[in-house]
Prior knowledge:
- It contains 4 helices and 9 strands; from the N terminus they run H-E-E-E-E-E-E-E-E-E-H-H-H.
- By secondary structure, it is of the alpha+beta class.
- The protein has 2 domains: 10-121, Immunoglobulin-like (Sandwich); 158-208.
- The strands form 2 sheets. The protein has a 5-stranded mixed sheet with strand order 1-9-8-3-4, with no helix packed on it. Strands 2-7-6-5 form a 4-stranded antiparallel sheet, with no helix packed on it.
- The longest helix has 30 residues, at 179-208.
- 11% of the residues are buried.
Amino acid sequence: MREIYIYCCLLPALSTVKMKSLSKNGNVGENVTFTCSNWDGLGKPQKRVKYLCKAPCEDKDVIMKVKPEETKNKDRIKLKNTGGSLVVTFFNLQKSDAKKYYCGMERAVWDLYIEVNLKVTQGPRPKPTPVITKFSPSPAVLSSSTMSSNDTETTTEECTSSPNSSSTIPPVSATHGSGGSLYFIAVVTVMVALLLMAALVLYRIIARKPPKIVSSARDPRDDSVEVQ
């Protein structure tokens, strides 16, 4: 009886020595999944409760337990007990997730474990996304361009509606105070002044020209013929 008792006490130690070990690497911000399966020991793993714990895997270190064919989520960790294996997923990895974990399977005498070493690295930094900015003119620029376009349209309408616009000065509206209308009035005024000056110069040239004198004297030969 004493030898049997000693053998039973040594079984957990032998199981611990044969414990499987997994290593998993991931970058910050990524999702990592690993599967704990092929449990060592006797029994049917399909009917066993499985769990995930942090080292040293005492009762306070257990994160979650799942029954066969059950799925649970806690914080950024998901456990799925498929029966023969335990699927563990870490979402949005953080530096604090890098530590030693154990996949455990409950047994009547002692639990079976698979050691998991999770390493988290910073990884390459993502390239910055180029920002495209759209140009939006200020209200002052919009109002200035609108007034200029309105003045141009009004001037065009006045020119097309009056056939004698070259000889008459269009009335200045009280609302037309922009540079476009003043420029048009100045151009028309200069044109009219040039026309008047040209007409005045032409008139003076014509007035100074001497008149043609038509002679009425007869040929002396005609007088000699009459005397004979």
